[in-house]
Design brief:
It contains one helix and 28 strands. With 350 residues, the protein is mostly beta strands. The N and C termini lie far apart (44 Å).
Length: 350
């Protein structure tokens, strides 16, 4: 009994269950809290908060610079015409660094770092933009022409960009054109092709998606209980799965080996029965079959894979959860304040 009381006391005081990560883990976990408008920087080994920086108004997603020193946070502005800033934070010394003015690129949302640049979506402008951290200015924009271009993935070779456009119910496959300059192209960045593949009905609200590590498939999930798999080479829908278990789906993430897809469920209820409902559904990519359900104690929104492949992290109403990818069990939790959401990984920043 004493042991149980001691464990309960430690958890209550620390706000987290501390479980060591695999040895050799380097980097830091970044998590946004919409409720208190902060970005927390977390040690993944101890799950302790190292520091916080202000996120600006209505923070939704975050990406870190390649050197691990600066965070870029999208200030969304839902219901307010769309804001047009990215808030920057020093995630080594925990200081605000001002904002990036996006001009007419309003409603920034999805964020990712690739090739040393910061890519973001602009829902109002129906576009994808890019910021150069050397100048903190927008240096490239490409229109998708689709409604609510929400999240973005960029291939490692920088030759392809992917998005899912919520209201258009399309997956956009954006490819750098090869072997031609383009009639009006002035530089390599100017010549791209955009192919939009219909993934379902706009009412199905496809939002979360991910692309397999080999770049051949895009999986997107609807909160209405459907997964659409797009063949990104043939540029067509390969398969549609009706999966009631993913009702309330919010995000999709592949494990680093591409063998498993995790689908997070945000809308599963608050407390009571909702606390015991699986919030992450795991699928085998090859068979398209469900292989595991993970219960975290509440709905899960954001998902992130740790770069060493040992863990996944989910932003839950109950806090951030750390999931061991070998056992598919929750091995740690940390309380970050109200409504944690966007997640990112930052390099060591030394």
């Amino acid at each position: 009994m004493r042991t149980r009381l001691l464990v309960a006391l430690v958890v209550a005081l620390c706000g987290s269950v501390l479980v060591p990560a695999q040895s050799g883990t380097s980097g830091r976990l970044l998590v946004l809290s919409k409720g208190d408008r902060t970005l927390s920087v977390i040690d993944p080994t101890t799950l302790k908060i190292l520091g916080k920086v202000p996120s600006g108004d209505d923070p939704h997603e975050v990406a870190a610079s390649a050197d691990g020193r600066t965070a870029y946070i999208s200030n969304y502005g839902a219901g307010r015409g769309g804001f047009n800033t990215l808030t920057m934070g020093d995630i080594v010394n925990f200081k605000p660094l001002g904002t990036v003015d996006l001009g007419g690129l309003r409603g920034p949302h999805g964020m990712t770092e690739a090739g040393g640049k910061i890519y973001f979506t602009s829902e109002v402008a129906k576009a994808i933009g890019r910021v150069d951290p050397a100048t903190n200015k927008v240096d490239w924009v490409l229109g998708t022409g689709r409604d609510i271009t929400h999240m973005v993935v960029v291939s490692k070779d920088l030759q392809r960009i992917f998005s899912v456009d919520v209201q258009s119910a399309t997956a956009s496959i954006i490819e750098r054109a090869k072997g031609r300059a383009g009639r009006f192209a002035q530089a390599a960045d100017d010549d791209w092709t955009v192919t939009s593949v219909r993934v379902g009905d706009p009412a199905e609200d496809f939002e979360g998606f991910d692309v397999t590590p080999d770049g051949n498939e895009l999986w997107t999930a609807s909160p209405r209980g459907k997964i659409t798999i797009v063949d990104t080479v043939g540029k067509k829908v390969a398969q549609t799965l009706d999966v009631p278990a993913v009702a309330g789906a919010n995000r999709v993430k592949f494990t680093l080996d591409g063998k498993l897809a995790l689908v997070s469920r945000l809308s599963i209820g608050r407390g009571g029965a909702g606390a015991n409902v699986p919030s992450i559904i795991v699928f085998d990519r090859a068979t398209r079959k469900e292989v595991k359900q993970v219960t975290t104690g509440g709905g899960v929104g954001g998902l992130l894979m740790q770069p060493d492949g040992s863990r996944a992290y989910g932003s839950s109403r109950e806090g951030v959860v750390a999931i061991d990818l070998k056992t598919m069990t929750v091995v740690g939790k940390i309380d970050l304040g109200p409504n944690p959401d966007g997640l990112a990984w930052a390099n060591s920043g030394n």
